Amino acid sequence: MTKITLTGQLIQYLFTGVTVGSIYAMVAVGFNIIYNVTDIINFAQGEFVMLGGLIMVFFTVTAKLPLPLAFVLTVAAVTGVGVLMERFTINPLKNASVLTMIIVTIAVSILFKGIAMFVWGKDPYIFPPFSGSKPLFFYGAAIQTQALWVLFMTAVMVVLMTIFYKKTRYGKAMLACADNPEAARLVGIKVNIMILISFALSAAIGAVAGAVITPISLMEYDRGALLALKGFGAAVLGGLGSFYGAVVAGIFLGIIESMCAGLVSSGYKDAVALILLLLVLYVRPSGLFGNVEASKIKEF
Amino acid sequence: MRSSNRKALLGLTLFLILFPVVAMNVTAIGHYLDIMIFVGIYCLINMGLSLLMGYAGQISLGHAAFFGLGAYTSGILCTKFSMSPWLAMVAGVGITGLVAYIVGVPSLKLKGHYLAMATLGFGVIVQIFFNEEVSLTGGPSGFSDIPGLSILGFSLDNDLCYYILVWFLVLLTLIFSLNVIHSRIGRALRSLHDSEVAADAMGVETSRYKIIIFVLSGVYASIAGSLYTHYVGFLSPSSFDFFLSIKLVMMVVVGGMHNIWGALLGTWLLTFLGYEWLHVFRDFDILVYGAILLGVVMFLPDGLVALVPRMSRVWKRG
């Protein structure tokens, strides 16, 4: 047993923070993908993470499928859920008011939560970590290998999304929709399809987040709301709509939260992110990295 | 007051007088009186929420927090400081009103999604506070032995007395709210709902009216919270969680958010569903809630109350 030192402790908190923060970052990116194309904040974003975790448990523990296959199937299943959500609830409600859209996505999130409770019950679930449960030791801090997987997946997501937006036709078309939907329509981009893709993508990212975090933090049916709230905090902190802003802010939020839990009070750990969210909203709603001008043009 | 409102008010009063007579004589629904007390308490909150959402066009996903603040202020002052319940209720109104003002001023500058998330965040923070300040609130397990209410030495400890008290307050609040709607403030609010920019340009002080309504709705919720505390006699943070905030919004939306009568109808329906008729579904009630809310928003955007004129037209024709 290694001696617990202050540096070791700090490294431990930092690492936990970055791990949890990566999840917030992924939720925040999910918010942004949909927000950019539709101006909708999808309150069911956290539910994608919850479903990702629980479906992964189903494929690995219940169906006993090999890990890579289970992972692919999970992401596919949740992506399907995202597509269905867009087709049946978002697409039929064209030109609805912001208030209505908020309530619709809340209704969908309650529905997902209800379905999850119906299928899995109220207990938290877990499945074994991707590569064994033996932790690595690093300057007196114990680091779970699963946390490295979380970081790896986040990095993969950042790289893939960057390639998608910068190099592919669909990615560029989505950026065009975000910039100006009317003009995008005029040059022949099917905004309708772009909205569908945005829901599929953001559901897929949610599923990845859920699948990698469950071996560390477990997953139960009602985890979605708080994840969504903190992910939204990260998205706002980073400037709503900003991709890299969301990633940086998510990780930053995770670190602050983990430091507070370790050094100040674990009971108020959830409050920290929320108080930060309120402060940013009150003082600088465009976010720390966001563009003030741009935030004034968008309808909130 | 418009004649349709007067008729509806008369109908409601008659229903409220007849209800206990029927409920107390039919054993199968004897406990409905108890549920009606909860309906009344939630109606108080939701009339405020209806003013805020339906008339001022502002969403709040944190009203459970105001309800909880009223409840906890009453509970703590009555048990730990042995204050008179009525005085504690007034203190609750003061504290909640102040908090609503402090939160409302910066929050109501935000619009749409930002406001929804800010109020949601506020609600969760207040719930964490109830959970963590164990010395004050009893923490997650809460505290009990909160005394009941009495008027001039006459104790209101049976259901019928409490029913009369709660619904008397609901009717008073309803009449007050209807007057607010048809006053200068009400007209200003409706102009806000349609277009804030246009209202601003016409010289309506939009931010001031929004804050007035936000604080008023917080005060309604606080009174409801005090009534809840003294009726149940026990408090724990889980009664004021963010799912309650969502359920309150749901009641208003399902009933019809552009109409205060809709808020009453939705509250009545969903409270009975939750306390009584959904027991068949046991723990899966949340699934049914989600389906109902989604169905109403998608297919009946003006809520169930929009069916009433349609039905009366069919009635007259038939």
Care to describe what's here?
The complex is a heterodimer of chains A (300) and B (318). The N and C termini of chain A lie far apart (53 Å). A two-stranded antiparallel sheet of chain A has the order 1-2. Chain A has 12 helices and 2 strands. Chain A has helices at 6-38, 45-62, 67-90, 98-120, 145-167, 169-179, 181-186, 191-217, 224-237, 243-263, 269-283, 292-297, and strands spanning 136-138, 141-143. Chain A is mostly helical and 300 residues long. Chain A has a domain at 22-223. Chain B has one domain. A two-stranded antiparallel sheet of chain B has the order 1-2. The longest helix of chain B has 27 residues, at 206-232. Helices cover 74% and strands 1% of the residues of chain B. Chain A binds chain B through residues 40-41, 43, 89, 92-93, 96, 98-100, 102-104, 106-115, 117-118, 122, 225-226, 229, 232-233, 236, 265, 267-268, 270-271, 274-275, 277-278, 281-282, 285, 299-300, and chain B through 53, 57, 59, 61, 106-107, 109-114, 116-118, 120-122, 124-125, 128-129, 131-132, 242, 246, 249, 253, 283-284, 286-291, 293-294, 297-298, 301.
Q: How are the secondary structure elements laid out?
A:
The complex is a heterodimer of chains A (300) and B (318).
Chain A: H1 6-38, H2 45-62, H3 67-90, H4 98-120, E1 136-138, E2 141-143, H5 145-167, H6 169-179, H7 181-186, H8 191-217, H9 224-237, H10 243-263, H11 269-283, H12 292-297
Helix pairs in contact in A: 1-5, 1-6, 1-8, 1-9, 1-10, 2-3, 2-4, 2-8, 2-9, 3-8, 5-6, 5-8, 6-8, 9-10, 9-11, 10-11
Chain B: H1 3-25, H2 32-55, H3 63-80, H4 85-107, H5 112-132, H6 134-137, E1 150-151, E2 154-155, H7 159-181, H8 184-194, H9 196-201, H10 206-232, H11 242-255, H12 260-275, H13 285-299, H14 307-317
Antiparallel strand pairs in B: 1-2
Helix pairs in contact in B: 1-7, 2-7, 2-10, 2-11, 2-12, 3-4, 3-5, 3-10, 4-10, 11-12, 11-13
